[in-house]
Design goal:
Blueprint lengths: L2 H7 L1 H8 L5 H8 L7 E5 L5 H8 L3 E6 L2 H11 L4 E2 L11 E6 L8 H14 E12 L4 E4 L2 E4 L3 H9 L4 E10 L9 E9 L7
Parallel strand pairs: 1-2, 1-4, 2-3, 4-5
Antiparallel strand pairs: 5-9, 6-7, 8-9
Length: about 200
């Protein structure tokens, strides 16, 4: 069973356990880098929790998820269609002012991470920002039915530095927002796609 199979099988349980988690503080950090009413891609939207928050803040939001079951649940929750799409299928060309990838890209294996991150970056307009989060650590492999690719700060900076068009804005560690996961630490990252036309 791969990660998408897991989310399809446990969609209802996952929805119920995550839809009320408060990500407001991190979402506001992300929003602070965005133009008012800008276009956002929620990449791996899960329950649609953060999509709904961003819609309510006035953004033009596109939500996608690789799990068909979660797409259906999230569509109902946010009141608009959620695209059923895997990371490898991304084909937006400089469309979004911001991409919110909360606990989604962490399911990408190390061998494919650079390729997928490149696809994600291509979806951003010049000057756009990307938020992504990963479990903090050095593990990569299957854990609790899903594939995880953990990162520490140095390794994440090295991954970002492979892309000349990326500027690291913020990187920080935080506890898990779910109270029952209080021992888990997350690595949060906000990067900006540099507008090369403005570079000297």
């Amino acid at each position: 069973m791969d990660s998408i199979d897991y989310y399809n099988k446990y969609a209802n349980l996952y929805f119920e356990s995550t839809v009320e988690v408060d990500m407001g503080e991190t979402l506001e950090k992300f929003i602070s880098h965005l133009p008012e009413g800008g276009e956002i891609l929620d990449l791996g939207c899960g329950s649609g929790r953060d999509s709904l928050y961003l819609i309510q803040r006035g953004f033009d939001l596109t939500a996608v998820d690789g799990s068909k079951e979660l797409c259906e649940l999230a569509s109902i929750h946010i009141g608009q269609n959620v695209l059923h799409m895997q990371f490898s299928e991304l084909d937006f060309d400089e469309v979004f002012d911001g991409i919110w990838a909360c606990a989604s890209l962490l399911h990408t294996a190390p061998d494919h991470f650079e390729e997928i991150l490149g696809k994600v970056i291509q979806c951003l307009k010049p000057g756009g920002v990307l938020y992504m989060s990963f479990k903090y650590g050095e593990f990569s492999g299957f854990r609790n039915g899903r594939y995880f690719n953990d990162f520490k700060t140095k390794e994440m900076k090295n991954a970002i530095n492979k892309f000349s068009q990326l500027e690291l804005l913020e990187i920080w560690k935080s506890p898990d927002a779910r109270n029952e996961k209080e021992n888990e630490i997350w690595l949060n990252v906000i990067v900006k796609k540099i507008n090369k036309e403005k570079q000297v």
